[in-house]
Structures are given as C-alpha cells and as structure tokens.
C-alpha cells in the first residue's frame, strides 16, 4: 500500500518511522511519502493561509497550494488514489472504515491546521477520486496530523503480513464475529501470582469452553461499564454456540 501525506509539519509524521508502521515500511509492505505543503507556495513567506471570507476568527488554508500539491502527488502514481481528509466535521473513523481503507492500494492524507481548508479543494477532488472526510472522535485537535497517525496505525496493522500473528486481530474489540461490539476483557500472563494477586483460576483450567464463556462475561461487564451505548449493538444469539465450539 502507498500512503502520501501533505502537511505543513512533515516532522510531525516522524512516528511513521517507528514500530509497526516503521517496520512495515522497511519490509516494503508500506510505501510512505511525506510532503511539505509549503513546497507548493510561490511567495517569499511561503503563505498557506488567509483570513476567512464572511469574517470570523482564525485563518483558512488557501486552495492554491493544496491544488498544486494534490495535482502533483495524484499524478505521481498509477492506480486509484483515495483522498482521506481529517477533520472534526468528518464521518467518525471506525474499525469498519479502517478495514475498508486497508483494502485500497493508495491513500492520500491532507491534514489541515487553522480552521481548515477552503471548501473548494474537497469539491474539486471529489470529482476526480474517492474522498473520505474523517473525524477520529468528539474533541478538537489543533491539526489533522495526529489523526493521520491514528488512522495510519489502525489501517497498517490490518495489512497482510504486518502483524506477526494473522489471528491477532480476529478478537479485536469492534472486529466482526461472535464478539462483535463487545470490548475486550482483561488479559494475564506469568507469573500466576504477583504481589499476592492471582490470575483467575478458570484461565489455568485448560477448559476452552469455560474460558471462552468467562472471557465473554468479562467483556460484557466492561462493555456495560465503559461503553453502554454498544450493548444494544451486540448479537447474543450466537454466543453460546461460539463458546461450545471452543
Ligand atoms: Cl481528524 N482533526 C482535528 N483537527 N480535530 C479532530 C479530528 C481531526 N478528529 C477529531 N478531532
């Protein structure tokens, strides 16, 4: 998969050299290219923003540098690019959208600063390619770069060969399947006793059916406590059959 990021803070994307995404890059599963938006300005001050028409606070990113940058980036590869525009006004980023984006060959991110990008830019590129305006949650960041890191990590770990164990996203919270819409429960490793605290006995029992049932109960408890909004989206019908199969 190819990823392009156009930003006025290229150094903000340094974490893409680290950990899972960094490894995916050095192994060749990911081709990441970070571009400085100011390379497509032509004035002495490399201006990327201006005051909003209609008045109001803050500044708006000018359309011309974005247009020149995206024209050049989109022309630099073959295949269908998908534009991902991080914005607090976008559609919520979910695991479902992560899975959808992980199936695309080429993502182009346009993280903005200030009050956002002149609206005509999204309108222009909607006519040329698939565009997703995406928000990572109900809070406001100073810019979209952190959102690009979030989305990239969620997508990269779904790519074939990027996670060590292909099974490790089967049980993810929000993954489809029997446990869909339940948060993951607690996990334990050795030693079996630590500071007087025991690992729940059922996990040492070797009884896969009982373990599956216990994990589901814990997952339900956590979901009810932390995300009561998800409980209504659970499908309990398949649960017992799922447990007995294990
Ligand atoms: Cl994608 N951008 C900004 N600036 N703030 C956000 C966001 C994105 N998602 C949630 N808040």
Automatic annotation (TrEMBL):
Domain tRNA methyltransferase TRMD/TRM10-type: 1-232
Name of a matching Pfam family: tRNA_m1G_MT
Residues reported in the UniProt entry to bind S-adenosyl-L-methionine: 136-141
Transmembrane spans: none
EC number: 2.1.1.228
Compartment annotation: Cytoplasm
Organism domain of life: Bacteria
Principal subcellular localisation of the protein: cytoplasm
Functional description taken from the UniProt entry: Specifically methylates guanosine-37 in various tRNAs.
Family: Belongs to the RNA methyltransferase TrmD family.
Subunit structure: Homodimer.
Protein name: tRNA (guanine-N(1)-)-methyltransferase
Organism, scientific name: Streptomyces thermolineatus
Highest classification ranks of the organism: Bacteria, Bacillati, Actinomycetota, Actinomycetes, Kitasatosporales
Underlying gene: trmD
């Amino acid at each position: 998969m190819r990823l392009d990021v156009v930003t006025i803070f290229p150094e903000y994307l340094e974490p893409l050299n680290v950990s899972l995404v960094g490894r995916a890059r050095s192994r060749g599963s990911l081709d990441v290219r970070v571009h400085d938006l100011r390379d497509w300005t032509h004035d002495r001050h490399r201006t990327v923003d201006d005051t909003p028409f209609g008045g109001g606070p803050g500044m708006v990113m000018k359309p011309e540098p974005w247009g020149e940058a995206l024209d050049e980036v989109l022309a630099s590869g073959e295949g269908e690019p998908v534009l991902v525009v991080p914005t607090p006004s976008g559609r919520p980023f979910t695991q479902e959208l992560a899975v959808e984006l992980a199936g695309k060959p080429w993502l182009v991110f346009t993280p903005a600063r200030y009050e956002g990008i002149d609206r005509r830019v999204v309108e222009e590129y909607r006519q040329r390619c698939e565009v997703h305006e995406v928000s990572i949650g109900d809070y406001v960041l100073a810019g979209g770069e952190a959102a690009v890191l979030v989305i990239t990590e969620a997508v990269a770990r779904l790519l074939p060969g990027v996670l060590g164990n292909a099974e490790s996203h089967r049980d993810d919270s929000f993954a489809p399947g029997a446990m869909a819409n339940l948060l993951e429960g607690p996990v334990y490793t050795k030693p079996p006793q630590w500071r007087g605290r025991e690992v729940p006995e059922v996990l040492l029992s070797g009884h896969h059916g009982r373990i599956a049932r216990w994990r589901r109960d814990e997952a339900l408890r956590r979901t009810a406590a932390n995300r009561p909004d998800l409980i209504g989206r659970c499908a309990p019908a398949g649960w017992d059959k799922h447990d007995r199969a294990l």
